[in-house]
Predict the structure.
Amino acid sequence: MASTRRPETGARPAPDAAAPLHSNVHAELSRRFITGRVVPGGLLSTRGLAEELGVSQTPVREALSRLAAEGAVQIRSKRRIVVPTMTELRFRELLRCRELLEPEAAVRALPHIDGKRLRRIRRVDEAIGAAIRDGDLHAYMQGNFDFHFLIYDAQPRGILNRLIEILWLQFGPYMRVVYGRVGTANLTDQHEMAIRAIGAHDAAALRRAILADIRDGMGLIGKSGFVYARDTDL
Amino acid sequence: MASTRRPETGARPAPDAAAPLHSNVHAELSRRFITGRVVPGGLLSTRGLAEELGVSQTPVREALSRLAAEGAVQIRSKRRIVVPTMTELRFRELLRCRELLEPEAAVRALPHIDGKRLRRIRRVDEAIGAAIRDGDLHAYMQGNFDFHFLIYDAQPRGILNRLIEILWLQFGPYMRVVYGRVGTANLTDQHEMAIRAIGAHDAAALRRAILADIRDGMGLIGKSGFVYARDTDL
DNA sequence: CCGATTCATCTGCCATCACAGATTCTTGAC
DNA sequence: GTCAAGAATCTGTGATGGCAGATGAATCGG
């Protein structure tokens, strides 16, 4: 009833039949970026994605426009749509932005985290542990995202969280590559400290925990030998 | 030959004939937002803008998608495209984000500001002074934007500056309203301190100057009586 | 066998058309 | 005069088709 027409979309479960197609496309692509299912330097095409997702180019292009605004892709006119490669400069800046914004978001959200949400956070953390044991990179990255945004989003979504999401969209593809080289064995779960801080309503401790988590996860890269691509593009 | 058909585009100088239309449209609309030429709560339509700018809906839609990703507009499906109204919560968050990011960007850029750029900064600052005297709000806001981003962009554009630009896109329309009520007479030029800090290569002083400028400009609003709209829109 | 040129293909880009829901104005009944 | 029902209009949305430039492969000349 929701939508009388549905030509051949059946390929995908269709997250929300009521929402506009371009919105669903953007959501699907965002998930791919955040969970690292696209590779830095990789090429995307409107026609390819359109066919793959069972829609026309129009909503795909619109979604890609948004992703371009979010820095997740670069649209090179008359050329190609590429997932940006990582450079050392870019990575450091990304890291610095996370350090500036995420602890702030966590502290802000802290008073709004009730028992129910804390339980959900714990559950996600357990899933992360399982993903690490199973070596399931994809599940790990999704869980990590969920963990952080379950905290930040306790305070109704605002500009701050939006900016943070933009950062995640950008480093997602790269992290996947890094994790792929390091392996999940080296991943440690730094979230315990954050969970304790939340339970104790200790803002200062939560700030420290989030900061430590960011530095730990992304510090892995320094230890694993940087795998920056040369900035051949442009 | 470039385009065999050109109904009535002549209205605008066409910033860059080589760039894709949607890019130019986005640039034009961005300018309008940053200089406060759109009003919070105001409605935009793809067809209206398309006609106004002499293009078809398609590139306009794409530009609006980007602006939506940047939080400058909200696209309500099957309804309207609106410039978000300001709420106290939103405003505080915006302010906080500016405080977090802009001093950082300034300090980062400081080593890259050469004499030539500093001269340009001084020139813009003079233009701002003139705009205040003349009561030209539009010129003031453009100048203020130029001043800040002449500093931040000394370091080649990165994620940090991009995030800041997103913030400016969001509070531009609102600041215009505020300035419109307060009048330019109350505007003080806080940039002198920043310029001195740059000349002296004093990072700490520059950080303080930028922070003071942000708080001063946006603090005006508190003093002028908040004119927040009720958050009627879901 | 190697290099340069041409041609087929693929790309993003944009205009156009059609559709369905929402809004607004008109119209009608009481 | 008031209010509700219906029609005209306006909205975002999405599919389609075609254009120009870029890419890459096949072809031709050496």
